[in-house]
Amino acid sequence: MDLGSKIKELRIAKGMTQKKLAKLLHVSNSTLSSYENNRYEPPLHLLCKIADLFEVPTDYLLGRTRLHQSFHILNNKINDNYTVGHLMNKIISLDVQNQEEILYYTEYRLHRSNQVKTDKKKGQKPDRS
């Protein structure tokens, strides 16, 4: 996805109008429209401001990563001893087979978590297996 489409997608996801975003960026509506339609690219200082407004890394806007969470998430605490960044470093240090096992387990836990949420909405007691 190109830069303009990402800006537009993020703006819409936040429920923001072009007029509102243009005002926050101190540009005209037509300038913002030119960015969203890839006629022009925003200058570096605006690219950084857009990233900050939508809490995404500039690398995401530039297509250098698919990670759209801000890198600040790496500082989020999991418990008293570990942050998300610590966990990622531990996973990266593993061989591919072990990384795949963690991936499969994570997908399983996400699936189970979604099942529990669905069961609660239906008024059913969650299966604890």
Report on this model:
Helix content is 61%, strand content 0%. With 129 residues, it is mainly alpha-helical. The chain has 2 domains: 3-72, 434 Repressor (Amino-terminal Domain); 74-122. The longest helix is centred in the last third of the chain and has 27 residues, at 96-122. The radius of gyration is 20 Å and the shape is extended. The protein starts with a helix and ends in a 7-residue tail after the last helix.
Question: Quick gist of this model?
Answer:
This protein has 129 residues and is mainly alpha-helical.
Number of discrete domains = 2
Give the CA-CA distance, first to last residue. Answer: 40 Å
- What's the overall geometry? extended
Which range best describes the helical content: under 10%, 10-25%, 25-40%, 40-55%, 55-70% or over 70%? 55-70%
CATH class of the largest domain: Mainly Alpha
CATH superfamily of the largest domain: lambda repressor-like DNA-binding domains
Beta-strand residue percentage: under 5%
Number of strands: 0
What number is the mean pLDDT? Answer: 90
Please state the oligomeric state of the protein chains shown: single chain
Number of alpha- plus pi-helical segments: 7
